[in-house]
Design a protein that fits this description.
Shape: elongated
Order of helices and strands: EEEEEEEEEEE
Helix content: under 10%
Structural class: mainly beta
Largest sheet: 6 strands, antiparallel
């Protein structure tokens, strides 16, 4: 594992907010935490694991999506990087978890790829964990 990024603080988020990441543990270079973004600058394929403990605060389903900002500055939602709950009972605590792969290309011109987590639906999160492991 190259890095583990997390927040154990309780945070209330609106739909469309970026989830906070407060702490990081990394080994090796080429990966770091900048604000609420995980920054990867070493080319390769990475396995991303996400687990979020959340309670719904609104009346719609909640979820989390992985956003990938490319070196060219374009931010896209990862195709496989999302989890959601359709239970609309406010206050129910649930775990939203998924894994996905992200490719960081060699032709970055020294520009890193940035990862962040997007809240879909109003929720209170109490535990956010993201792990990053290089697989190629």
């Amino acid at each position: 594992m190259l890095g583990k990024f997390y927040s154990i603080n309780s945070n209330t988020l609106a739909s469309g907010d970026i989830m906070p990441l407060a702490t990081s543990r990394t080994c090796g270079c080429g990966i770091r935490l900048e604000g609420n973004e995980i920054v990867i600058s070493t080319p390769g394929s990475y396995l991303i694991g996400v687990s979020v403990t959340a309670a719904q605060t609104g009346t719609t389903a909640i979820g989390v999506r992985l956003l990938v900002s490319t070196p060219s500055g374009v931010t896209v939602q990862s195709e496989g990087g999302s989890a959601s709950s359709s239970d609309v009972t406010a206050g129910n605590i649930r775990t939203l978890a998924f894994t996905d792969t992200v490719r960081v290309c060699k032709n970055n011109c020294c520009q890193p790829t940035r990862l962040s987590l997007l809240a879909t639906g109003a929720m209170t999160v109490s535990n956010i964990i993201v792990t990053v492991a290089r697989i190629n």
